[in-house]
Amino acid sequence: MRVLVVEDDAALRDGVKAGLEAAGFAVDVADDLPEAEMALDLNRYDCVVLDRMLPSGDSLALLAQRRERGDAVPALFLTARDAVADRVEGFHAGGDDYLVKPFALDELVVRVGSLCRRARDARPPLVTVGDLVVDTARCEVRRDGVLLPLARKEYRLLEVLATQADTVVSRTELIERCWDELVNPMSNVIDVHIKELRRKLGSPPLIHTVRGIGYLLGTAPDGAS
User: Fold this and answer.
1) What are the helix (H) ranges across 53-206?
2) Contact 209, 170 (CB under 8 A)
3) Any residues with CB less than 8 A from the CB of 160 and at least 6 apart, and which?
4) CA-closest candidate to residue 189, choices 203, 178, 198
């Protein structure tokens, strides 16, 4: 799951990033509204964490504008403003959760995880491709009834491929959905994880390479390997 953290306090931003990454999230960061706007335009996130008061303005206005444009990314506000009126204002602007500073990092991680799962609720709880079953609610994968021990990144890759079964998913989209912006799109990180996924999934192969484009889970198209 990929999260954007928008916070101008470098120490707090780095601490939140480290805590979320330790919990298995891919995390991008921004320290002002223009940078946050650009990140949201370019990438698909499962959740965004927004500091209310930034040097470039109130992130509440940014979220309200994006909600008007149909952006439904779950959003959690971080702020020192703890009045009831401030919280109500945040929810009216389209916020999904509100956490007052100072806060416990463990609580933030739990809240972000809850928002990410809420965003996934629109997906079918079970995705079946042949004898492969991906349980998106429990983050479990079975093939022919056998539970497969997948690492977090392996599961996330497989989930993205499974929810778009029989459709070619580009390398760029896989990078955007499963890693943060610091990953070089030309690196072999996807190839390494796909190779291990194929090994764990066993035979007959379900993941196919469409050269020059990306990968497909399901029936191999002409020219795929």
Assistant:
1) 59-68, 84-92, 105-120, 152-162, 171-178, 189-201
2) no
3) 169, 173, 174, 177, 178
4) 178
